[in-house]
Automatic annotation (TrEMBL), chain A:
PANTHER family noted in UniProt: DIOXYGENASE, PUTATIVE (AFU_ORTHOLOGUE AFUA_2G02910)-RELATED, PROTOCATECHUATE 3,4-DIOXYGENASE ALPHA CHAIN
UniProt-listed InterPro entries: Intradiol_dOase_C (IPR000627), Intradiol_dOase_core (IPR015889), Intradiol_RC_Dioxygenase (IPR050770), Protocat_dOase_a (IPR012786)
Similarity section: Belongs to the intradiol ring-cleavage dioxygenase family.
Domain (Intradiol ring-cleavage dioxygenases) ranges: 35-116
Keywords, in A-Z order: Dioxygenase, Oxidoreductase
A Pfam family: Dioxygenase_C
Oxidoreductase found in the keyword field: yes
Protein name as catalogued: Protocatechuate 3,4-dioxygenase subunit alpha
Organism phylogeny: Bacteria, Bacillati, Actinomycetota, Actinomycetes, Kitasatosporales
Gene3D superfamilies found in the cross-reference section: Aromatic compound dioxygenase
Residue intervals passing through the bilayer: none
UniProtKB/TrEMBL annotation, chain B:
Pfam families for this protein: Dioxygenase_C, PCDO_beta_N
UniProt domain Intradiol ring-cleavage dioxygenases: residue ranges: 94-122
Lineage of source species: Bacteria, Bacillati, Actinomycetota, Actinomycetes, Kitasatosporales
Organism: Streptomyces camponoticapitis
Region entry Disordered, spans: 1-53
This protein's name: Protocatechuate 3,4-dioxygenase subunit beta
PANTHER family registered for this protein in UniProt: DIOXYGENASE, PUTATIVE (AFU_ORTHOLOGUE AFUA_2G02910)-RELATED, INTRADIOL RING-CLEAVAGE DIOXYGENASES DOMAIN-CONTAINING PROTEIN
Keywords, comma-separated and alphabetical: Dioxygenase, Oxidoreductase
Family according to the record: Belongs to the intradiol ring-cleavage dioxygenase family.
């Protein structure tokens, strides 16, 4: 079978703010959960300027390592149509947060568990922004997994300096910092997920 | 009334020359390159380092979030019914299917869309284009795909609008789309255009897709069968998500036969 040619990406543009963010988008942890951690950081461009029109999506396993997720990240009130946030019970594994005027974002979640035996846990991030014609994937590893990450064969080609861009920094109990640098010195490592095997030439549509 | 001073910057001719230059560079032909000089906002926002390929068959990114009936309301797919009155503009439906590269429908997944109003103005404070806001149009909708991957929205045709990429820069009319697959790495945010728009050749965002056939896949088709008498004009637009769906790897798996429309 020849794979179908896919639809190309286009930028999210600057005006997604009334559409994509939803109430409680960064509140992934069930309300009041004792193990809640806060993950936050800035998004910077290659000139060192904050990126105020980025939006970050998070996808992760739950603390037991389950990747089944659950609906209800962006529940809507069927009466008014307004967003009403998660139900405070289910762990959906998905979050979405726009950066603020200072390029800052924050999410409250539970630390992911290993998604299979021996796996190093991480949160997967997709970064969208004006100026990005195609979104970027990166990962957040918590500092307690730094040693295991260094042994992860899928990221073995990285120098320790580059690998460090995937590590959140512990600021205090349950508060972790993860900055994203789109370009330049300390540029964040971004990831790609190629097919295996790579598809042959696409059919022209 | 005073007129706006034109922004300083490159002329359309200079942008055209950059588009032609980028056209000859070697890019992956389907997704736009993240470094695309004619789109000036990309300058400081594209990584200089190539992405690191991850070939872990158990990667978290081969799974993805799920959505359900609590995440949408029955009115969310109709952008003309979100306010007390009817929005101004040409009422249209946009419908199609979301498929993976094997041609299989992406079922029960979230599709979101947002757009400018008929005058080319977004309901966003930072949009300073001097076109009227429409109190009866916000321009945001969402729905879940059906068993066959189908989606449908009722909205109005958005207007073209100026932007400050260069002097006299205008975006062709477009609708922003956000789509989820079964795997997070199939995530797609893109824009749908309308057939025959005279602004296509001038627009660096669309032209960033350097392959002509790939660009065509961003353009909806007018479909008379989907027009509703005395009511709305129908456009058809199918979306094919890139990226390995988890099941694409399953040994011995065969894609479902393509469904006949």
């Amino acid at each position: 079978m020849t794979p179908r040619p896919h639809t190309p990406s286009q930028t999210v543009g600057p005006f997604f703010g009334y559409a994509l963010p939803f109430p409680g988008g960064g509140d992934i942890a069930p309300a009041g959960h004792a193990d809640t951690i806060t993950l936050h950081g800035h998004v910077h461009d290659g000139a060192g300027q904050p990126v105020p029109d980025a939006i970050i999506e998070i996808w992760q396993a739950d603390p037991r390592g389950s990747l089944s997720g659950a609906p209800g990240s962006m529940r809507r009130d069927p009466v008014t149509g307004r967003g009403i946030g998660r139900d405070g019970v289910e762990f959906t594994g998905f979050g979405r947060v726009p950066t603020d005027a200072d390029g800052h974002w924050a999410a409250r979640t539970l630390a992911p568990g290993p998604h299979h035996d021996g796996a190093v846990p991480y949160l997967s991030l997709a970064v969208f922004a004006r100026g990005l014609l195609h979104h970027l994937f990166t990962r957040v590893y918590l500092p307690e997994h730094a040693d295991a990450l260094a042994r992860d064969p899928s990221l073995a080609t990285l120098t320790p300096e580059r690998r460090a861009t995937l590590l959140a920094r512990r600021e205090r109990d349950a508060l972790y910092r993860f900055d994203i640098r789109l370009q330049g010195e300390d540029e964040t490592v971004f990831l790609d997920f190629p097919y295996a095997p790579r598809p042959l030439g696409d059919v022209r549509g | 009334m005073t007129t706006h001073a034109l922004p300083e910057g490159l002329s359309q001719q200079e942008i055209d020359a950059e588009i032609a230059k980028a056209q000859t560079a070697s890019h992956p032909p389907h997704h736009p390159p993240r470094d695309y000089p004619p789109y000036r906002s990309s300058h400081f926002r594209h990584p200089k380092q190539p992405p690191i390929p991850v070939r872990d068959p158990e990667a978290v990114e081969l799974t993805g979030p799920v959505f359900g009936v609590t995440d949408v309301t029955t009115l969310d797919h109709d952008l003309t019914r979100q306010h007390q009155g009817e929005p101004l503009g040409e009422r249209i439906t946009v419908s199609g299917r979301v498929l993976d590269r094997a041609g299989r429908p992406v079922r029960h997944q979230l599709v979101e869309l947002w757009q400018a109003n008929a005058s080319g103005r977004y309901a966003h404070q930072l949009d300073q284009h001097r076109a009227p806001l429409d109190p009866n149009f916000t321009g945001f909708g969402r729905c879940l795909t059906g068993d066959d991957g189908s989606y449908s929205f009722t909205t109005i045709k958005p207007g073209a609008y100026p932007w400050r990429n260069h002097v006299n820069a205008w975006r062709p009319a477009h609708i922003h789309f956000s789509l989820f697959g079964t795997a997070f790495n199939q995530r797609l945010v893109t824009q749908m255009y309308f057939p025959g728009d005279p602004l296509f050749p001038y627009d660096p965002v669309l032209r960033a897709v350097t392959d002509h056939a790939a660009r065509e896949r961003l353009v909806a088709a007018y479909d008379h069968e989907r027009s509703v008498p005395e009511w709305s004009l129908g456009y058809r637009w199918d979306v094919v998500l890139d990226g390995p769906a988890a099941t694409l790897f399953e040994p011995g798996s065969r894609p479902a036969e393509e469904e006949v429309r």
